[in-house]
Amino acid sequence: MSRLRSAAEAALDRRSFLAATGAVGVSAGLGLTFRQEHGAAAAPAEPPAVAAAPAAAPTASPTPARLPAPVTPTWTGTSLRTVATPRTSGSGYRRLGPGPGWQRVVRSELAAARSGRADRRTALASFVQLTDLHLTDVQHPVRTEYLRAQAAGAWRPQEALTVHGAVALVERVNALRGGPVTGARLGFAMTTGDNTDNNSKAELDWFLRTMSGGRITPNTGDPTRYEGVQDSGLPLYWHPDDALRDADKKRGFPRVEGYLAAAIRPVNSPGLRIPWYSTVGNHDDLPSGCFANADATGFLADFAVGSRKLLSLPTADAAALESVLKKGDDPRGSYFKDLLRRETRRMRPITPDPARAPFTPREYVQAHLNPAYAGAPGAPGHGYTQENADSETLYYSFRIADGVLGISLDTTDRGGHFAGSIGTTQLAWLKRTLLAHEDDHVIVFSHHNSWTFDDGGGDKLVALFKQNRNVIAWINGHSHRNEILPHGTFWEISTASHIEFPQLARIIELVDNHDGTLSLFTTLIESAAPHRTDFTDLSQTGLAALYRELSFNAPGARQTLAGPTNARNTELVLKKR
What we know:
Layout: E1 32-33, E2 82-86, E3 96-100, E4 105-107, H1 117-120, E5 122-130, H2 162-175, E6 189-192, H3 201-212, E7 214-216, H4 259-263, E8 267-269, E9 276-279, H5 282-285, H6 299-304, E10 308-310, H7 315-327, H8 334-342, E11 347-349, H9 361-369, H10 386-391, E12 396-401, E13 404-408, H11 424-436, E14 441-445, H12 457-467, E15 471-476, E16 483-486, E17 491-494, E18 505-512, E19 517-525, H13 540-553, E20 570-575
Parallel strand pairs: 4-20, 5-6, 6-9, 13-14, 14-15, 15-17
Antiparallel strand pairs: 1-5, 2-3, 5-18, 7-8, 10-11, 12-13, 16-17, 18-19, 19-20
Helix pairs in contact: 2-3, 2-13
């Protein structure tokens, strides 16, 4: 979402029609029966039993597919076991360490949680949601770090390490042997948008290599040195490499010599070992997450690849721009472009780089279709098809398992706004898709949540999902905060980002309780990076740990993003149709 959070009018959605409603399936139906979830201290008395051989998924090969047997459920690697916690109280820079985990909360607003269900339950699906990774080119000229004087979150000291943190999250997902409740092998991962930060081709490459595996150099411009705000000499920003008493060091931030050189060194990602799907967010589709893309042409596109970067503004000008962005009433970036044109004398020379160019929706899809980014088999194009590229539509459906359908929506406003939008064409497609799959359980994925639309789209989607009882969950991100809402017939699950503390992702397990109810088990996970940091450890893993600790200490960081306890690790019960 925008770092300058507010509501404003969204422009009309002009998305075109996507004919196809299905895609290649992830897996066959699970159909696995399990005992009660494993506790923190002891292992289960016996391994889960397989109730029946799973049948082939409707869209998969006609040959029956047998999934690997489930593993013994365990809390290891999840927030049920432990979470990063400050080691001391008080103000100033605080170090993190391992703290107690978060207990599971049973929520029965939509259906009664009946006794004995743990012994009856059958797993239907198991997967992971990642959201708001915000892989960031911190040297990009279109960034507005200088607004930090007005809005603390306009620049965050951890942003140079987004790739390191995301790779550590991939490592965590790879280390999970199965769902912590059912032990069912994870079928896939889904990203729910803001995979990149600034609609940049370099960031898109980093994201795809992080998810599918490869070597990533999180640097643009000069290949030998950093050219951003953190070596500018301006006390507004944390300067880790030198002795400048900047604003952050006055708060206790450390001096970490060699940090900037380490931050732009190559990073190696193993890639996810499970298939993964992609959902688009406003920061993927729009420069700065809020300006119309203009087919990746025009002044901002030229400025993005150019040789000048603005690092500071007079207080009055910064306040004026912050107000414009907060209101969201500059969808084409006219005010912003005029400001950049008149502030050339304040700009720092940087090395131009065509890799910083914005990408179009078509290019976004084509990159996902590129065999170089294929990743683990099972999700060709990561949900997208050539038809998506040709029509520039970024929504699709896919088979999760027998009897379970996934739908990925595009809720970005291409007219230019950080709030959500759902156009009439996409809405009509969604209605047809829900009707065509009325006998399936349907899980909907999007970037925006129900309360962050400005065109009434959130209310429209809630009403539509309530009318279609096959919808059991709507899973999203955008607000960077854990929240779970009951909507009469389905649950809305919104998950915290991985750029702001506490930097989480979420495992979701769907089970049939065989008593007229279903349960959605949600379990939060952190990256594989250690909770404790060592300022002398500038390895890939050491920087991933520092990424988390810096995010906790970032000035202006919201301390409520973990959400209430009933939005973290939960069992969400609902009636079965």
